[in-house]
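Dig into my protein:

:::
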Amino acid sequence: MAVIQVKDLRFAYEGSAQEVFSGLSFNMDSAWRLGLVGRNGRGKTTLLRLLAGELRGAGQVHSAVPFDLFPFLVPGQRPAGQALLDALAPYAEWEAGMEACLKAGTPGALAQYADLEHRYALHGGYGARGRLMKEVALLGLDPEALVRPFDSFSPGEQARLKLAALFLREGRFLLIDEPTNHLDLQGRDRMAGYLKGKSGFLIASHDRDILNEVCTHTLALERQGARLVAGNYASYREDKRREDEHERDRHDSLLAEISRLGRSAREKAAWSDRVEAGKTGQGPVDRGYVGHQSARMMKRARSIQGRIQRQIEEKEGLLRNLEYASPLKIQAVPHPSRTLLRFEGVSFRYGEGAPLFAGLDLALHQGERLALSGSNGAGKTTLLKLMEGALSPTSGSVWRPRGLSVSTLPQTGAHLRGSPRALALERGLDLTLFLTLLRKFDLPREAFDQEAGSLSLGQRKKLMLSLSLAQPAHLYLWDEPLNDIDPESREQVEELLAGASASLVFIEHERTFLRRVATREIEVGGLR
């Protein structure tokens, strides 16, 4: 157990006038399970990369334990077990070297063997494979499958394999960046149980269930710096919500007080100016005396002005740390037909493969919010594409009423080209509504005219959500709308959908969101 200190950390990306961090300071314990949260663009990934040494900034980081960063690169074509071990320490290189030294048998080679063996043992080479198999099993994967090439595993399985390998190294503090992005509900549950049995890590995640289940402490990157609290995300969020509500209640009185202090500062400055002007008034005057008095009054006035200005800045600072999460709007419109989709005996397969589902009967009515659940690869995205009409069933029929307008949201924003403003104009959206949605999602105004590809993953997902919300539609089809967006924005989307009459079919893997939003849920893996 050791204290890790971050002092006055400053960082800006090359070519950017805007600092990501300006004087960031906090302490954390190397034994904590610490959750890292903050709205998109606050610098969570940047902070992890700075601590890991991948980025260089000003300031100081004092730690008696070294850092390891997740995710990390693993050679895809090699057997997974060996590739994972070598990604963290050159086990195979040392083993080959030791074997060559033994074959040579010379005194120099044997001395080199001793050095290689020492490093191998120091880095846990003996027994490492057995420990890796044990960790992999704890994460719900088959240890015998480690002989397969690493890239033969799904993205979610690869994430679990990398995490298992990281925990082999003792005396390290792990920096874990979004480990659940490619995991289904069962995978997330397994990972949460696994992490609860560990200690000594800082995890950046948007999944509220993981943060609440796993973390003993929370580090929040807020508008005015870092806040470190004991407890999970829910306890932090409740404390922050109460504080924000208190500050909002004081908002009007603070603004009035700021206005009063501003007037007082201006009056003191004008008073000093009038006294100074009296030095050159009409009639005989002792200008030296008046000048002396004027200088004293001016000094006093400036002192008062400085004190007032500090009070103004202090009060404005209270307002600047408020997290504004204004209610969103959706352009849902009613359709004359009560039923918006009907599947009758639908089957679908890709090529000659096994059918993803067969003989599916399904009806969706207006106002329903249908969640599609199931394991990775079960066919959830395929089912959404059948609903949209982007795919045709292998057999059976999909019925949609005449004139049905559908708004879609894909998993990623890789297809986006152009700035947010240009994309909205291209699609004929209400520009004022669209830009208002972006601001409510906490996107800065300067992002409105940036190329979409230059935005962060979370900002791109907020752009996609805003494009969909601003499109008038009878039906919304959303594929993992929460990926990469911060918990506060997730709450905004929840509040919107819970209070709207929009018809929605969606895929999502966060249980909190499912509980609050879904009016019905179907298990896609059970539709075969």
The chain has a mean pLDDT of 87.
